[in-house]
């Protein structure tokens, strides 16, 4: 052979060898499996949400997942967590997606990424940012041009950050989901899915495996699937896993069976019983699926916490807000502790693939710091200049949160009695006017509450000109189903004895900013005096005994509100239950300096205002409703 053909042959062999060594993750339709680097592959994965776990705990949780026998984790990206305002992006601190992905790779875990743009996840508005509703007639999750412009802008920022982490590019992301459970959404807009598919392909390249997830019914798969996206299903434990996968086979006659959300537990709603699933039943279902050769992701493997205002809500004939805890009765508890369920699952996984050597990392240490007295510092009405430094917005009628560009938390609406009311007259709201709870004060005196799908009227008496205030709380926008445009605040005008109220002052309150800036406190109330009912801020502090361990805070006698520790918003508490404690990560606490507490109580404080720090959670006590 002459030198020239020999050189060409050598070059061809080198190119073939280079191609054979390139990382790849693909669907093998002929053999009903995935192929990773050319070899048959099946993932056993678990869901973890970095937005629900403090960054200092990421390694602990991921390490425990790896030691459970998982070879992958499934991760949502909440759009509203990273773009709080149009064009304002945050990928720092707890929001550092890149660092989270690098940590998963370091620990030997592959990633199934679910970047939305809609994610559900029992997360506020399903991950969609509330500022989308600044355009009131926008049609979410559709080919509405205004919605698509916002989506394209977001994906133009997010997906280039993701691309270096793709498996084909030397990273550990093996597949990427497009949208989420779209078949459960009434729009059924295939042009929207086609637009997303084209965008993901353009931004991530031709080789990445793109997929969809829907419930395992033909009706859900019909609108949730699209040619070019591998269709997977989700369902929980059941007696017949072959039948459970049958709807997937209608849309993917060949290829791997995939349960993208195998439910290890379930979420909790305020006022309802704590959800739980039997460990043996979960393990049995997992074994049945693995025996079928399926790839499985367990949702959740570690649930975490809806810190701040991030918990969402469902609507099933009535509004159902989700609790602060997202424990989910998952294999790893809210605090990241291994459970009986985890070890049952680990035993099953060990029957199908080798388990990592070494012991399971132990539960993180907990500490009961005991009782901490609080004192009332000021009523909310006394702090309007601090909580709303820009001053109120004037309007002849109430404006929604979205109209005043307030995403979360609280807005105060103020008007005045138009006439003397000597005989009790009803302050009434139409059925859909209050979203979600309004705390009513007349002349600064707490009168009670109006509530979405609940109490719609209060009887009042007072003199003409008396200030009438309604502090309205957003309890979380709906995250699933058909009603994604869940506006907050006073959506319609109220009436007093059938006469419309008018001339409103509207105060968008930023309690978080005030707490973070160490808001100027007035002189505390005299010792021994009782705090009045109604929205007020309370403070206190405690020292730890030279340690900063995880703990759980209980609210003896308190009604409903929000808690900050060292400026961090831990989330909502509510005597309605079932959750009676909030999780306090040790990483928030100082072992040497005072730990400062700020509490916003919305209704009625206890006779002795204190908090109780325990070494274990209470998630399953549905409390009696406080008086209106």
Q: Percent range for helical residues?
A: 10-25%
Low confidence ranges: 7-19
If strands are numbered along the chain, what order do they take across the biggest sheet? 4-5-6-7-8-9-10-11
Number of helices: 12
What is the assembly state of the chains in this entry?
single chain
How would you characterize the overall build of this protein?
The chain has 628 residues and is α+β, with helices and mostly antiparallel strands. Helices cover 20% and strands 27% of the residues. The strands form 8 sheets. An 8-stranded parallel beta barrel has the order 4-5-6-7-8-9-10-11, surrounded by 5 helices. The chain has a 6-stranded antiparallel β-sheet with strand order 16-27-17-23-20-21, with no helix packed on it. Helix 5 runs parallel beside helix 6 (190-204) and helix 9 packs parallel to helix 10 (340-350). The model is unreliable at 7-19 (pLDDT under 50).
Key features of this structure:
628 residues, alpha+beta, 8-stranded parallel barrel, 34 strands, globular
């Amino acid at each position: 052979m002459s030198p020239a053909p020999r050189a060409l042959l050598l070059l061809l062999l080198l190119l073939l060898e280079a191609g054979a060594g390139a990382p790849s993750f693909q669907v093998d339709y002929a053999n009903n499996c995935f192929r990773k680097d050319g070899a048959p592959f099946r993932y056993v994965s678990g869901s973890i949400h970095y937005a629900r776990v403090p960054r200092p705990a990421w390694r602990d949780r991921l390490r425990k997942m790896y030691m459970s026998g998982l070879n992958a984790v499934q991760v949502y990206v909440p759009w509203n967590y990273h773009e709080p305002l149009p064009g304002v992006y945050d990928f720092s601190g707890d929001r550092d997606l890149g660092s989270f992905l690098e940590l998963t790779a370091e620990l030997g875990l592959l990633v199934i990424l679910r970047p939305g743009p809609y994610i559900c996840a029992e997360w506020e508005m399903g991950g969609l940012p509330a500022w989308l509703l600044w355009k009131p007639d926008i049609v979410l999750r559709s080919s509405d041009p205004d919605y698509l412009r916002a989506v394209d802008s977001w994906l133009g920022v997010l997906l280039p950050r993701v691309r270096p982490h793709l498996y084909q590019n030397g990273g550990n992301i093996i597949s990427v989901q497009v949208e989420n459970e779209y078949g459960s959404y009434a729009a059924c807009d295939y042009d929207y899915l086609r637009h997303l598919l084209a965008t993901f392909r353009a931004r991530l390249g031709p080789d990445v495996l793109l997929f969809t997830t829907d419930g395992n019914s033909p009706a859900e798969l019909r609108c949730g699937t699209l040619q070019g996206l591998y269709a997977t299903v989700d369902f929980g434990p059941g007696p017949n896993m072959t039948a459970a996968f049958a709807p997937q086979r209608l849309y993917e006659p060949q290829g791997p069976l995939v349960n993208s959300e195998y439910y290890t537990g379930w979420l909790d709603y305020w006022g309802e019983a704590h959800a739980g699933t039997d460990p043996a039943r979960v393990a049995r279902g997992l074994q049945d699926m693995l025996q079928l050769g399926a790839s499985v992701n367990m949702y959740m493997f570690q649930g975490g916490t809806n810190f701040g205002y991030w918990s969402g809500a469902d609507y099933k004939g009535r509004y159902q807000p989700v609790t602060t805890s997202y424990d989910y009765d998952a294999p790893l508890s809210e605090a990241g502790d291994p459970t009986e369920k985890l070890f049952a699952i680990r035993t099953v996984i060990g029957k199908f693939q080798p388990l990592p050597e070494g012991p399971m990392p132990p539960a993180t240490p907990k500490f009961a710091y005991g009782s901490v007295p609080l004192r009332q510092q000021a009523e909310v009405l006394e702090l309007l200049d601090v909580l709303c430094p820009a001053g109120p917005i004037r309007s002849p009628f109430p404006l929604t949160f979205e109209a005043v560009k307030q995403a979360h938390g609280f807005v105060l609406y103020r008007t005045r009695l138009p006439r003397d009311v000597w005989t009790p007259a009803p302050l009434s709201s139409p059925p859909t006017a209050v979203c979600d709870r309004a705390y009513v004060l007349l002349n600064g005196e707490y009168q009670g509450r109006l509530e979405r799908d609940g109490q719609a009227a209060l009887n009042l008496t007072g003199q003409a000109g008396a200030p009438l205030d309604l502090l309205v709380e957003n309890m979380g926008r709906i995250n699933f189903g058909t009603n994604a445009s869940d506006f907050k605040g006073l959506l319609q005008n109220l009436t007093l004895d059938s006469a419309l109220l008018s001339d409103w002052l509207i105060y968008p309150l930023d309690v978080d900013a005030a707490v973070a800036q160490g808001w100027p406190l007035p002189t505390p109330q005299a010792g021994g005096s009782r705090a009045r009912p109604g929205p007020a801020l309370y403070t206190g502090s405690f020292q730890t005994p030279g340690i900063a361990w995880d703990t759980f805070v209980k609210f003896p006698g308190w009604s409903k509100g929000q808690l900050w520790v060292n400026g961090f918003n831990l989330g909502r508490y509510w005597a309605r239950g079932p959750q009676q404690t909030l999780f306090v990560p040790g990483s928030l606490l100082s072992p040497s300096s005072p730990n400062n507490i700020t509490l916003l109580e919305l209704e009625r404080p206890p006779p002795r205002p204190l908090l109780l720090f325990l070494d274990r959670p209470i998630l399953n006590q549905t409390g009696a409703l406080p008086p209106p």
